[in-house]
Amino acid sequence: MEKKAPEEKAREVEGLDIPGVYVEWVPERFYPFGKLASHLLGFVAPSDEDVGENGRYGLEELYNEQLTGIRGEIRDGDIRPPRPGKDLILTVDPNIQLEAERILQDLVREHSAKSGSVIVEDPKTGRILAMGSFPNFDPNSYSKFDLSDFLNPVAQHIYEPGSVFKIITMAAGLDSGKVSPETTFYDTGKLELNKRVIRNWDLKANGAVTMSNIIEKSINTGAAFVQRQTGEEIFTRYVQEFGFGDKTGVDLPGELKGDLRRLSPESPAIAFATASFGQGVAVTPIQMINAFAAIANGGRLMRPYVNAEMKPKELGRPIKEETAQEVIKMMVSAVDKAGVAKIKGYAVAGKTGTAQVPEKGGYSDTRFVNTYVGFGPASNPKFVILFKLDEPAGTSLAGATVVPAFRDLAQFAFNYYNIAPDRLKE
User: Fold this and answer.
1) Distance between CA 397 and CA 252 in Å, rounded?
2) How many of the other CB atoms lie within 10 Å of CB of 61?
3) pLDDT for 188-212, tens place per residue?
4) Cα 292 to Cα 319: distance, rounded to the nearest angstrom
5) Catalytic (active-site) positions
6) CATH no. for residue 386?
7) Is the separation of the CB atoms in 91 and 306 below 8 Å?
8) Is 189 within a domain?
9) Predicted TM-score (pTM) above 0.70
10) How far apart are CA 129 and CA 154, in angstroms?
11) Domain-embedded: residue 21
12) Is residue 51 a part of any domain in this protein?
């Protein structure tokens, strides 16, 4: 018996009119957009009982019962008619999804990267406007792809985020009152703790710097200074309140919690210092963008979701609104001074991250993960965008890869949603 045979073959066999050989025409799931949003959607496959089909991976798996309905049956002489399944309406904007995946695919190919992901979220509600990863797969012909291709990297893979985590560190220091925007720090270019030395990514010493300079120049020793001023226990509490180390609650199957094991009371000081700039802690991309969304919306951590029937749900308030505004101001300054993500007419907030890939008890000198998370307009954010690029070839810096990708998608979103500029004097 052959299932899902090509139509031409089925008609050919049917035309032979062979006794005992039958062709049965049955409806089946078809994905008209092919690979688009495949990790988010998943696919349907024959059930284990070989009766009908069940959802596998993604939303097809999570909402299988709702989508499938109830098969009819005869029990004790009574006929129980089938009940059709219900439609699932998503928060995803098809045009944002299409443009986000186009930019992501070009990004991965241009830099010969291993893989990449993109997410767009509404910071006020937690609604996911786009979510995609590359390489992807075609749910219409899933059997041609490896099982590893079906896991959603946005929620089912963890990684060390690098310098994007400095925003969380700075928010913790400011909100706890352990540092202020006026606090200064003298950077010698290195910090020795537990017989290990922390250096800046560019190996430079910056001298006297402000808290804003730490974000603008992405100073590792500066982030460690803020963490040490904040204290290990308080720092860890803020990291957890931003949602790290726990599931976000997004309606996707198999979501991971990340890994904060190094932030334990028994850990040495160096573990907390390196965590301040995103090394030694592991997160999912959905956790990372959701934490930035909490800063964008004034300090409210929302549950991300993709089922449009769900309602916005506040999970907590990791920081005060005034703290969020202080951090946003620093992020806008970082974008303005770097220039790469700057968009005429708009105040844009963002932060880069270039993280070394862990290997053999240490870190690779040749393999990196680039992340950029940003939002706009900064005065009243309408969207947050995360781009993640795994192991690009030939360059290690996020500023040359994911930042231009963010700028292109942000410009598209400003135009598509007809968002009014908040910098009219530029």
Assistant:
1) 31
2) 19
3) 999 999 999 999 998 999 999 999 9
4) 12
5) 163
6) 3.40.710.10
7) yes
8) yes
9) yes
10) 14
11) no
12) no
